[in-house]
Each structure stands twice: as C-alpha cells, then as structure tokens.
C-alpha cells in the first residue's frame, strides 16, 4: 500500500483525510510554482550582481515579475514543430522533463508534523514508503525528457546534445545512487521523513558530519551534473551546440523545459538539505503556537543557501570539457562513493570491520590508480579510432531534396 | 597547490562583485555621461548674423568614406545672399543609413559649417526618414538643432558641438592651439577654444571632461582622481545631487 508510512491514513481514508491531502497538493503546487518564478528571478538577479550588471528591473519591484512577463511572452509566441520532427515524441518530451521535477518535490519534507482535527499531518505532499527511491526513479525518467527532446527534433545539434545528456546523466546516476545508499544505511529508513527524523537530534547527527563530508561532496557534484547545471552544462554548451537539446523548441514548450530546469534546481537543493543537512531540523525558540513555523523557516533557509550556491557555481566556474565530465564521473566519483559506502557499512557492523574495509578500499584505490595510469599511457593513433557507426539523422537524399532547389 | 587556490579564487572574486557598484545603468531611465567629443548626428551651423556657414565646396562629400553626403553648391543670389561667401550649399543631404560618424566631414570643412552634436538616439522607421536634408540639419534661428519627433534629445547634447574642430588648427600649426579661428555661431557666439596636449585649456568653458572624471564610479580605487575620493568627495557628490534635484523640482 502506497500510503503505508503516512500516519494520516492510520485511521482509514475518510472525507477529511481526502480534503487534507487535496489541500496539501494544491498548497504545495502553488507555493512551489511561486518558488520556481522566484528562483528564476533570483538566479538572474544574483548572477547579474556577480557580473556587475543590474539584471531584471522593469517589471514589478526589483524586477520580481519579470518571470511572469517572460512566461506570458512565451505563451503567445508561435509554436513551431520542425518538419523533420517526430511530432508525438517532440510534444511529449517537455512533459517528461517537467513531471518528474514536479513529482520529486512531493517527497521533500518541508516541516514537522501538524495536528489538524485529530489527524497527524506531515508537512510534505506525500510520504511514500519507498521514499528517496522516488527521487532516483524520477531523475531516471527526466533523462528521457532530455534525450527524446533532442532525438525527436530531427536536427543535428540537439541530437548531439541529447546523446551527451543521456550519457552524462546515466554516468552520474551511479554515484548518486551509491551515495543515497550510504545515507539510507545510517538512517535505517527509506522514507524522507525517516531520514530527516534520524538527523533531528542536533547538528552532530546531520548526515553531512555523521558520514564524513565526502558523501555530501560526491552527492552535490553528481546532482549538479544530473541537473546539467554549470559547470557540467556540456549539454547546452552554447559555443558548441547552439542551445543544446532544446534548440528546436519554441513557445510554451521551451518554457516548460526552462521551468523544469529551475524546478529541478530547487528540488535538488531541497533533496541535499533533506539527505545531509537535517531538512527542517534546527533550533526552535520556545514560542507557543508558532513552533511549527520555525522548521519550515530552517528548511527554506538551508535550501536558499544551496540555491545560491548553484548560481554561484554558474558565475564562478568555467564549463568542463566533455571528456573531463566523463573522467570525473567514472574514474573519481563512482569508485570513491563505492569505497566510502563500504567503509560506512563496515563501521555499522563493527569498528573492526570498518578498519578492514578502509584498508581494502585503500588497496583497491592503489590498484585503480595504477590501472588508470596504464590506461592513460596506452598507445593511441589512427588505428585506435573507431569507424563512425550509423548515418546522419537525415538520409542524404532527403537532405538534398530539402536543400537543393531545382533550377527553373 | 596553485590549482587549488585558483579554484576558490573564482568563487571569491564573484562573491566580492556582489557588493561592487554596477557597471551598467538602467538605460532609458538613466544615462551615462557622454564622452566629451562624442560623434553624434550632424548639425549645419550658421553665423551669428543668421547667414549659413556652408559654402557648398563639397569637401565633406569628397572626404566621406561612406559616400553618405550629397552636396550641390549654387552661386549666392545677389539680392539676398544665403552665405557670406560666393556660393552656398543649395542641396545638403546626409544618409544616416550609411554614415559611420567618423567626423571626417567635420575635419574637412573649411568654414566649420558642419559639426556633430552628441545625439545618437535617433531611430527611424523608413528609408526616407534616414536621409536628412538641409531642412533637418540646419540649426534654427536660436542656433539650436531642429528636434525631429523620432529623435531623443537630452540636455547638453546640442551645447558643445564641434569640440574636435576647435581642438586643432587645420594647418597643423602647433601655435594655433587654443586659438579661436572662426567667427561666432548663431545661438552660441564665440565658442571657447578647446585646449590640446599642452594643458592650456579651460575645461569649464569648453565642456571638456576627462574620461577619468566622467566614469569615476567605474574605476579601480587606485585610478580615482584624488579630489574625487574620500569623504570630501562624498559630500560634494551629495551636494551636487541635491542641487540637481532642486533644479528638477
């Protein structure tokens, strides 16, 4: 049963319960759409501050309504579908990007537990028993959004971009998943609520400190790559790929991709906070009746810090080359996260096993380093380059028919 | 080690910039000070007695690298001459779709008839508007340029035209520096000469302002002129702002 972990359903599903769930969904959705527009505004404003520019300023105080204006503009623009596009997939892809971004946010705990009309209401839209796995599943689906968008466009650059995107996102998903396993091991719970509760006793119980800082750093890097945000935005490397996988998109479909990107940025900031920084945990002043507000404020503050960090990354770091991205993912992050998970698992069994695991991991990393060294110094030449496989997205004769016009 | 510090150097630099003054301004509302010798839209000047300065010699058209000037001269009618010389500019047209604002025409003009204002915000919506004829270029009876509906004139843009011409002598004679060569202009009288390299210059009279003073907000601290930094300068700026607000009100 999907609602098994949620105490709201402990006394059966009644009309009041359904109402509470509906309110949670509507409020969550509204708050979150507001948060997305604010995030877009915040990103543009913060990055312009860092670049000594003014940024959006025309619409609303401090340009706060700029996103709304952009949305209205995009909504009324002509909706183009390229002639060579796979029409159905082309139209489907933006939703494959957007919906996972929406769903992932549902599992993030925004605050503690409220008691309304005798029902214990957790301040999160849903608390499924598979918990954090939903996040992994959804980030898996969002790969399809990007990949199919590029493929269905029937155009070369989006195609290259989507190939890059899917390769990159799948690579980093491994490191991401292993790090999440590390968190699950110490939390003894798959649900986000349980993970947050396990960190609730104070700052020394936060996973970022409890696990050593390494899993947090790996998770942060992996999630940044998963989001295709700078410095890992090889997917939309403007200097190489025009606009990336969404080059052929216009109008509201482009807006959906754009929104999905920023939704993901907030969601993943929130996921980092949930997994490593105790979520809504924090000092609560002894104020009657308002005690439930402070966890929400703590959550917002922590998420804001990470949202700012993403903007900061974009301003400070140059884009990585594609092979560097792949190197970092496969050669550094995956072995490191795997090793760290083994060490953590060892210490959970017994300290002795922890040290045995640590020794084994050190040994394995030496072997790995030697292997990388051998690999890097191997002979390369024209013979080692593979023959190109397949053909260009558009067959030669059809391309000619499109481009060469008959004389007369 | 050096690589590591570089990595965090980027973060430090971008974070510092959060508090730095902005380089850009909110353009249509706020405008940057214009450069002292900015090349803008042309004006055809007249003498103080109202006579046109243009003598129809076509030197400007000859020197124009973009071929955007079209001039035809005509003998002055004896009963009511247009210019004090023998001939006058009968047709004078500048095509602003071609003009590159290089100011060569201003340099070539033997009578300082054509100079450039600092106006650059004139966007037209059809080709015939792009060709300015004598009717548009010639100054009015007060000596001010004609302000066309699609032009966005601001205060001071017409005041100091032709600064470049007054800076050097046409013959290249250094002794001419800072000497007024021409008779007065309608509306402005005898304009003060602009100094050259020697420092014999009256900046207040000619409206000259060094870039270092005009763009002082955007300089690195070490480059700011001494009298424009520190608390003294802050008080001066405040006083100036108050004064300008009072003028505006």
Question: Could you tell me the radius of gyration of chain A in angstroms?
Answer: 24 Å
| Largest interface: pair, residues per side | A-B, 12 and 14 residues
Backbone shape of chain A: globular
User: What is the tally of helical segments of chain B?
Assistant: 9
* Largest sheet report of chain B: 3 strands, antiparallel
Order of helices and strands of chain B: HEHEEHEHEHHHHH
The first-to-last residue Cα distance of chain B is 59 Å
- The helicity of chain A comes to 55-70%
Mean pLDDT value of chain A: 84
Largest sheet of chain A: 2 strands, antiparallel
Instruction: Provide the spatial order of strands within the biggest beta sheet of chain B.
Output: 2-3-5
* Contiguous uncertain segments of 5+ residues of chain B: none
Measured by DSSP, the beta-strand proportion of chain A falls in under 5%
Compute the number of strand runs of chain A.
2
How do the strands line up in the largest sheet of chain A?
1-2
Strand content of chain B: 5-15%
Helix/strand-derived class of chain B? alpha+beta
How far the N terminus sits from the C terminus of chain A, by CA atoms, comes to 70 Å
Low-pLDDT runs of 5+ residues of chain A are none
């Amino acid at each position: 049963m999907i609602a098994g972990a949620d105490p709201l359903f402990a006394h059966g599903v009644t009309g009041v319960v359904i109402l509470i769930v509906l309110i949670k969904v509507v409020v969550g959705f509204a708050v979150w759409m507001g948060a997305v527009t604010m995030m877009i505004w915040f990103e543009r404003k913060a990055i312009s501050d860092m670049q000594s520019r003014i940024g959006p300023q025309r619409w609303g105080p401090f340009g706060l309504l700029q996103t709304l204006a952009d949305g209205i503009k995009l909504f009324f623009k002509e909706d183009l579908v390229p002639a060579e596009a796979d029409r159905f997939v082309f139209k489907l892809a933006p939703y494959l990007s957007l919906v996972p971004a929406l769903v992932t946010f549902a599992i993030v705990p925004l605050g503690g537990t409220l008691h309304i009309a005798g029902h214990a209401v957790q301040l999160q839209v849903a608390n499924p028993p598979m918990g954090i796995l939903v996040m992994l599943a959804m980030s898996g689906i969002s790969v399809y959004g990007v990949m199919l968008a590029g493929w269905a466009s029937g155009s070369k650059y989006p195609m290259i971009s989507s190939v890059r995107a899917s390769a990159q996102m799948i690579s980093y998903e491994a490191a991401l998943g292993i790090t999440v396993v590390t968190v699950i091991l110490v939390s003894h719970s798959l649900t986000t609520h349980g993970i947050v509760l396990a960190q609730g006793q104070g700052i020394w119980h936060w996973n970022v400190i409890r696990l050593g800082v390494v899993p947090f750093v790996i998770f942060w890097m992996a999630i940044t790559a998963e989001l295709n945000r700078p410095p890992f935005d090889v997917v939309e490397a403007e200097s190489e790929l025009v606009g990336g996988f969404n080059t052929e998109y216009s109008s509201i479909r482009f807006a959906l991709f754009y929104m999905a990107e920023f939704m993901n940025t907030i969601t993943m900031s929130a996921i980092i906070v949930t997994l490593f920084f105790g979520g809504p945990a924090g000092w609560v002043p002894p104020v009657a009746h308002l005690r439930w507000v402070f966890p929400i404020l703590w959550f917002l503050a922590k998420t804001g810090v990470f949202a700012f960090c993403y903007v900061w990354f974009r301003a400070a770091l140059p884009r990585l080359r594609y092979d560097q991205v792949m190197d970092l993912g496969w050669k550094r992050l995956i072995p490191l996260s795997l090793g760290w998970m083994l060490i953590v698992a060892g210490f959970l069994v017994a300290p002795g096993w922890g040290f045995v695991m640590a020794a084994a991991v050190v040994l394995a990393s030496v072997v790995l380093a030697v292997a990388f060294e051998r690999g890097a110094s191997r002979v390369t030449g024209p013979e080692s380059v593979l023959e190109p496989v397949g053909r260009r997205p558009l067959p030669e004769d059809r391309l000619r028919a499109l481009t060469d016009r008959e004389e007369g | 080690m050096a690589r590591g510090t570089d990595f965090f150097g980027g973060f430090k630099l971008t974070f510092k910039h959060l508090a730095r003054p902005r380089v850009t301004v909110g353009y249509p509302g706020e405008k940057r000070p214009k450069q002292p010798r900015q090349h803008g839209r042309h004006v055809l000047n007249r003498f103080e007695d109202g006579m046109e300065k243009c003598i129809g010699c076509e030197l400007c058209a000859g020197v124009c690298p973009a071929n955007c000037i079209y001039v035809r001269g005509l003998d002055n009618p004896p009963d009511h001459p247009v210019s004090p010389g023998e001939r006058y500019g009968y047709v004078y047209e500048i095509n602003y779709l071609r003009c590159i604002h290089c100011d060569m025409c201003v340099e070539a003009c033997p009578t300082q008839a054509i100079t450039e204002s600092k106006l650059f915000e004139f966007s037209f919506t059809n080709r015939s508007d792009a060709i300015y004829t004598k009717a548009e270029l010639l100054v009015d009876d007060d000596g001010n340029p004609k302000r066309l509906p699609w032009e966005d004139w601001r205060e001071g843009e017409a005041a100091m035209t032709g600064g470049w011409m007054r800076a050097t002598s046409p013959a290249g004679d250094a002794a001419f520096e800072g000497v007024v060569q021409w008779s007065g202009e309608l509306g402005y009288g005898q304009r003060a000469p602009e100094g050259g390299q020697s420092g014999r210059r009256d900046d207040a009279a000619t409206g000259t302002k060094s870039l270092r003073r005009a763009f002082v907000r955007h300089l690195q601290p070490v480059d700011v002129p001494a009298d424009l930094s520190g608390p003294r300068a802050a008080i001066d700026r405040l006083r100036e702002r108050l004064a300008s607000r009072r003028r505006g009100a």
